[in-house]
Specification:
The complex is a heterodimer of chains A (405) and B (112). Chain A is an all-alpha fold. Chain A is 67% helix and 1% strand. Chain A has one domain (3-399): Ammonium transporter fold, CATH 1.10.3430.10. A two-stranded antiparallel ribbon of chain A has the order 1-2. The model of chain A has no long low-confidence stretch (mean pLDDT 97). In chain B, α1 runs antiparallel to α2. Chain B has one domain (2-111): Alpha-Beta Plaits (2-Layer Sandwich). Chain B has 2 helices and 6 strands, in the order βαββββαβ. Chain B has a 4-stranded antiparallel sheet, with helices on one face. In chain B, strands 3-4 form a two-stranded antiparallel sheet. Chain B has helices spanning 13-22, 70-81, and strands spanning 2-8, 29-35, 42-46, 49-53, 56-65, 89-95. The relative contact order of chain B is 0.31. Chain B is an alpha+beta fold and 112 residues long. Classes of the chains: A mainly alpha (405), B alpha+beta (112). At the A-B interface, α8, α9 and α10 of A face β3 and β4 of B.
Chain lengths: 405, 112
């Protein structure tokens, strides 16, 4: 066991956990005041729900001994054999139980991200059942394909440094399926759904950005050069995304908005996630700038297609995750990370092809399975709150509380 | 006795209050209100989408004065609250039937 690596991943795990309450604030500021607590709860409760799931089956499904390249078996269920001794497969210099809890934080935030798409209109019990099924049937398998030992996409050479596919693409396409199955909020297109507390969203943005250093930096799984590369790329892509989105908005709408700046930062951070440890600072800035443009345009398509992706999970996380995964195949360089790969610009077009295969496989699988889970949960217990409850707001109808007096 | 009710732009409140104090008006009631007239609403932008906000914040002043002061009060408010741009507000005058001071039970102009 290496003490420096262990100390670093301990801190990184704490940082990634902080992103979930950070996301709760980021999302809650953007909904109407009557849905503040309901929205916060759709992030917060996943810390309990997914941690339980992860300990008892999730970790074993994602990282346990491989079955045919598609899933881990359940021999590590309830953490059997997962101890303070380092694993001989994953993060070999830190206790395996630390690797387990670090990965747990990723599993928590991914379904929490989806909830932004169906904000303000889903019953809490149905949300809990959907999130649990989604974690088991979508997150765990995809995590195994890419990060698990023997995963079929990993064998094809698909790379995802910190979760462009595993986290952002999966939650983005699940969000798309959710928007299509659940439908828009009542009054969509006629009523204004303006954010009720943007300073809360700004606080959430700060916490997310801060936590992202643990998310991407920690994905090196050691306190080494790759962690530094990832940390620096993360910051540079976040700032470039923020700058670009702000400029786009300023040109097209005449005013730079704070929500635009925050959205651009999150776009840049999501887009650099798959590439963070494989690209240098200049490439990271380029990726952030592209994110600012592409995600801005994607979010604007929503209103044209009449999709009520309420908090833009598809446009920011889905499009960002996919864009970053593809750009990894363009900008990756072995001079930056000798243990990584070369991309198109370094003369290796094959990596770009691998990345595309990864995108198609992950997005296709995640979309279809998310759709089926949503339809099943809807048929069995009903996903939507009643019209009256939607008028009253989630805070009161789902939790018997009020955020503001 | 009349009630002068004035809807004005919020940033003009201090100027109007000072001007009214200057002509000896000793009290007023102020309420933050929202509404629209010819100015209509305004547009806000969130994530690239434009939202029309119908109701604009305004301040409502209520002043009770004796009949012979009404014109002077109106002129004072108009002079202080006017910017010349759309949305400067409106003034309404209504008769007041009775006035009672709660502490003493005084009525009529004594109570104002």
């Amino acid at each position: 066991m290496n003490s420096a690596d262990t100390a670093f991943i301990l801190a990184a795990a704490g940082l990634v956990l902080l992103m979930t309450p950070g996301l709760a604030l980021f999302y809650a500021g953007m909904v109407r005041s009557k849905n503040t607590l309901g929205t916060i709860m759709q992030s917060l409760i996943l810390i309990s729900l997914i941690s339980l799931e992860w300990v008892y089956i999730g970790y074993s499904m994602a990282f346990g001994p491989d079955v045919g390249g598609v899933i881990g078996d359940l021999s590590w269920a309830a953490l059997r054999g997962v101890t303070i001794a380092p694993s001989d497969t994953y993060a070999t210099t830190i206790p395996q139980v630390l690797f387990m809890v670090y990965q747990c934080m990723f599993a928590i935030i991914t379904p929490a991200l989806i909830a932004g798409a169906f904000a303000e209109r889903v019953r809490f019990p149905a949300f809990v059942v959907f999130s649990l099924l989604w974690a088991v049937l979508v997150y765990n398998p995809v995590c195994h394909w890419i990060w698990g030992s023997g995963g079929w996409l990993a064998k094809l050479g698909v790379l995802d440094f910190a979760g462009g596919l595993v986290v952002h693409a999966t939650c983005g396409v699940a969000a798309l399926a959710a928007v299509m199955v659940i439908g828009p909020r009542r009054g969509y297109g006629q009523t204004n759904f303006m954010p009720h507390n943007l300073p809360m969203t700004m606080l959430g943005t700060g916490l997310l950005w801060f936590g992202w250093f643990g998310f991407n930096g920690g994905s090196a799984l050691a306190a080494n050069e790759v962690a530094v590369t990832a940390f620096v790329s993360t910051h540079l892509a976040g700032m470039a995304g923020m700058a670009m989105w702000t400029v786009m908005e300023w040109i097209k709408l005449g005013k730079p908005t704070t929500l635009g700046a925050a959205s651009g930062a999150i776009s840049g951070l999501a887009t650099i996630t798959p590439a963070a440890g494989f690209v240098g600072p200049n490439a990271a800035i380029a990726i952030g700038l592209v994110a600012g443009v592409v995600c801005y345009l994607a979010v604007n398509l929503k209103s044209r297609w009449k999709f009520d992706d309420s908090l833009d999970v598809v446009g920011i996380h889905g499009v960002g995750g996919v864009t970053g995964t593809i750009l990894l195949g363009v900008f990756a360089s072995k001079t930056v990370n000798p243990g990584g790969v070369d991309g198109l610009l370094a003369g290796n077009g094959a990596q770009l092809v691998s990345q595309m295969i990864g995108v198609v496989a992950v997005c296709g699988y995640a979309f279809v399975v998310s759709w089926v889970i949503l339809k099943a949960v809807h048929a069995i217990m009903g996903l939507r709150i009643s019209e009256e409850a939607e008028h009253q707001g989630l805070d009161y109808t789902e939790h018997s509380e009020t955020a503001y007096n | 006795m009349k009630k002068v009710e004035a809807i004005i732009k919020p940033f003009k409140l201090d100027e109007v209050k000072d001007a009214l104090n200057g002509i000896g008006i000793k009290g007023m009631t102020v309420t933050e209100v929202k509404g629209y007239g010819r100015q209509k609403g305004h547009t806000e932008i969130y994530r690239g989408a434009e939202y029309v906000v119908d109701f604009i914040p305004k301040i409502k002043l209520e002043i009770i004065v004796e009949d012979h002061l009404v014109d002077q009060v109106i002129d004072t408010i108009v002079a202080a609250a006017r910017t010349g741009k759309i949305g400067d507000g409106k003034i309404f005058v209504q008769p007041v039937e009775r006035v009672v001071r709660v502490r003493t039970g005084e009525t009529g102009s004594e109570a104002v």
